Amino acid sequence: MSVLNCCFGDVTDNFDKKRIPLSGSQRDARKGQYRYYGAQGVIDYIDDFIFDGTYLLIAEDGENLKSQKQNIAQIVEGKFWVNNHAHIVKSNGLCDLRYLCYCINTMDVSGYITGSAQPKLSQANLNAIPLQLPEINVQHKIADFLQMLDQKILINEKINDNLEQQAVALFKSWFIDFSLFGGTVPENWEDTTLENITTLITRGIAPKYSDNSDQTVVNQKCIRNHTIDLSLARTHTPKAINEKWLKFGDLLINSTGDGTLGRVAQVWFAPKALTVDSHVTIVRPAREELIFYIGLWGILHEKEIESLHTGSTGQTELPRDRVKMLKLLLPDDSSLSRFNSIIAPMTSTIISNQEENQKLANLRDTLLPKLMSGVIDVANVQL
Fold first, then answer.
1. H or E element, residue 81
2. What is the distance of C-alpha 362 from the center of its chain?
3. Disulfide: which of 15, 62, 98, 332 matches 39 by Cβ 3.0-4.6 Å?
4. Mean pLDDT in the chain?
5. Cα 336 to the chain's mean position, in Å?
6. SS3 category, 300
C-alpha cells in the first residue's frame, strides 16, 4: 500500500478567518435554528449561519486537548456557525475528510499543544502535525467501514433515547398524573422519603489516581443526559471501598458545582470494580422492585434535586441530609409490579444496546490503527 508522507496543512484548506465569536448576551438576542459550535461541539442555537457544507472541526483550546477523554475532531454538515475555539477545515482533494477525522481523534497531539493553564492547539501547530495517508480510494474504503460502525452505534443510541422517553412518560402518567387511577392518588399509597426506601445514600471516595490500575472511578463529567460515559472516567488505586462499589440500580447524583449539580444517571449495567468520587452521591434502592421507580423518579426530579443545593455561585454543594429527606410517593406492590413488567423489557433493550455499542466501539478502536497502517486490508474485514 503506497503512503503519502505529509503534514495536516498539506491536505486541507483552513477557514479559521471566517469564524466569528459571539458573546452569551449576543447569542441570547439571536436565538434560532442554526447550530453554534465551540471547541467540543454545539453550545447554542442562533438565527444565522456562516458555513454551509461538510467541514472538519478541531478543538483549538481547552483541557480536553491534553486529556483527549473526548474526541477533539468532528465532521459537521449543513448550515452552522463556529466561534474562535474550533479550527475549521476542508479537504483540498488529497484526503477523505472522514478518514482525517479518525486520524486526528486517535493521535497523540500532546506534542503540539502549548500552554498549561489553558491548553491551545494553534493553527500553525495543527498544520504541522505529520500524517501518513494511504491512497485516496483506500481512505474512502476505511472511512466507509468505520462510519458504518459509528452509524450503528448512533442508531442504538437513538433507540435508547426513545425508550427512555417512553419510560419517563409512563412513569409520569402513572405516578405523577395518576391517569391509570382516575387522576387521584390511590389510598393505599404512602408518603415517604428517599431515605426510607433506600439502604445507602452517601458520597463517593477521594480517589488516588493511577494509570497502572484497572479499577475505575466515575466523576461528574461521566454523568450526562441520564447516562454514564465510562470513557471519561479515570483509573485509581483503591483502598477498601466496601459498600461504595457500585451495584446495578444505583442512582448517581452529581453533587457539586453550578451547571452540573443535580444531574442524575442510573447504573443499568453490571458494574465491575467501579465506584464514584466524592463529588457524586450514590443512592441505592432498598429492594429490586424499587430500582426502576427510583431511577425514573430521579430523572423527572432533577430540577428539584438541584434546588436543594447550599453555598454561593461556584461553590454549591448538595448536602446528603437534604437528599435523604426528599419526599416521594411509595406505590403499592401490585402497582410497582405492573409498572416493572412494562419497563423491564425496555431497560433490557437499552442495556443490550449499550453492551453492543461498547463492543462496536472496541472493535472500531482496535481495527483503526491496523487499517490505517495497512496491517489489515479493509477489503478483508467483514462485520
1. strand 73-82
2. 16
3. 62
4. 92
5. 30
6. helix
